[in-house]
Amino acid sequence: MKILKLSILAVAVVVAAANAGSATPDIYPDAAQAKTDLAAALKAAAASHKRILLDFGGNWCGDCHVLDIYFHNAQNRLILESNFVLVHINIGHMDENTDIAKRYDVPLERGVPALAVLNEQGRLIFSQKTGQFESMRRIEPAAVTQFLVQWKPTRPGCSTVVINC
Question: What is the β-pairing status of strands 51-57 and 84-90?
């Protein structure tokens, strides 16, 4: 009887652990969707005069999930939504959408998440070359705020310190 109870408990622990792993929502859509999402972002950015923020990563990547949490905290969400069209590009296990990463000069071998910023016409204005956000677990949300403020579009008559200008 004791062995049966321990077996049931062990199965319950395994099931709970498996379910806990699936509790994290997917950030990155199917890899095949990247080109369509990028094309839609280019249109949306041109119409809204926003920049495009390309986020290269994978759903398996813990640091990518941390970056997404930081993107959506109260302060960063406002900056992000007001100034950028965010495109999550699924790189699979470093074997998908490598052509897009190469086109935007993002060295995936340096780690993910990796970001690139395009202007509203779709021209590259920044790409992470050294895996700056590769260890998001050890980076404060303020670093993401600083990044977003640094790369948001400037509008005539706006100060760079104004978040929603």
Answer: parallel
How far from the centroid of its chain's Cα atoms is residue 132's Cα?
13
Cα–Cα dist 124/38, whole Å? 13
Q: What pLDDT does 154 receive?
A: 87
Half-sphere exposure of 9 (CA within 13 A, CB side): 6
Q: Which residue, chain included where needed, has tokens 């050294």?
A: 130
Write the DSSP symbol of residue 99.
Answer: H
Helix (H) or strand (E) holding 114: strand 114-118
Tell me if residue 35 falls in helix, strand or coil: helix
Cβ atoms of residues 86 and 53 within 8 Å: yes
Q: Distance from first CA to last CA of the chain, Å, rounded?
A: 68
Residues paired with 87 in a beta bridge = 54
pTM of the model: 0.81
3-state secondary structure 49-91: CCEEEEEEECCCCHHHHHHHHHHCCHHHHHHHHHHEEEEEEEC
Q: What is the pLDDT of residues 9-31, one digit of tens each?
A: 333 333 333 344 456 789 999 99
What domains are defined for the chain?
26-151 (3.40.30.10)
Q: How far apart are CA 53 and CA 113, in angstroms?
A: 12
